[in-house]
Amino acid sequence: MIVVADEPDRATPLHPDELDGLRFKHITTRGELDELEQVNIESGLAWLNRRRKTDMLTEQFMRTLHRQMFGDVWKWAGQFRQTEKNIGIDPVQIAVQLKMLLDDARYWADNHTFAPLEASARFHHRLVQIHPFANGNGRHARIAADTYIADRFEHAPIDWTAGHDLQHTNDRRNAYIAALRAADAGNYEPLLAFVSA
Ligand SMILES: Nc1ncnc2c1ncn2[C@@H]1O[C@H](COP(=O)(O)OP(=O)(O)OP(=O)(O)O)[C@@H](O)[C@H]1O
Ligand SMILES: [Mg+2]
């Protein structure tokens, strides 16, 4: 049995039902899980690169991207979570709130409401705030934001890590979480500084 939330700010502890969905029963450490997820994410990125450029601002694309990134590791990949988490909205609201975000993001791109980095940062923030999945929301929403900025603005991807490891506690991760919290309170400046750095 693994302890998924063994680091205090690794967010979202998994429900026993969710842990049941682990496809590798022999895993014993967080590091082993991280590695399996990383291999899966790389095949998800390969899928993303070779996909036909369909509209990414759909529920189907968001779910398929999550399944491509995590489906070899978690049986529930690509399905919306059904349990409450310490981060994220009430699970019954996920589909509706995600639809509103996707429609907003389309409007921002069509109407040049924000510069590309700001539109993408706002999209990312709201997506992790909704927290559609049981796990992998940060990694999924960073890649989703990069797909948005590329597809809708023809802009280079965001340098999320800036040479650091965003998965573990360090100054870059702390700045990232602090910027998301400021955005929760309506102040997007720190997040904009973060994605512009
Ligand atoms: N207070 C917070 N602490 C941790 N994460 C937060 C917080 N507020 C928002 N988040 C977002 O939630 C994500 C963590 O959620 P989740 O565990 O589902 O994603 P993940 O991809 O597994 O996470 P990680 O970023 O640790 O790789 C963070 O990456 C971040 O985007
Ligand atoms: Mg996680």
Structure explained in plain terms:
This protein has 197 residues and is mainly α. The protein has one domain (16-161): Orthogonal Bundle (Fic-like fold). It has helices at 16-19, 30-50, 59-70, 94-111, 116-130, 137-153, 171-184, 189-196. Helix 2 crosses helix 3 (59-70), helix 4 runs antiparallel to helix 5 and helix 5 (116-130) packs antiparallel against helix 6 (137-153). The longest helix has 21 residues, at 30-50. The mean pLDDT is 93. It binds adenosine-5'-triphosphate and magnesium ion (MG). Magnesium ion (MG) binds next to loops.
Q: Output the radius of gyration.
A: 16 Å
Please, what is the oligomeric state? single chain
Number of domains: 1
Distance between the termini: 39 Å
CATH class: Mainly Alpha
Bound molecules: adenosine-5'-triphosphate, magnesium ion
| CATH topology tier name | Fic-like fold
Uncertain segments of ≥5 residues (pLDDT<50)? none
- Characterize the overall form: globular
Structural class: mainly alpha
- Approximate strand percentage: under 5%
Order of helices and strands: HHHHHHHH
Report the count of strand segments: 0
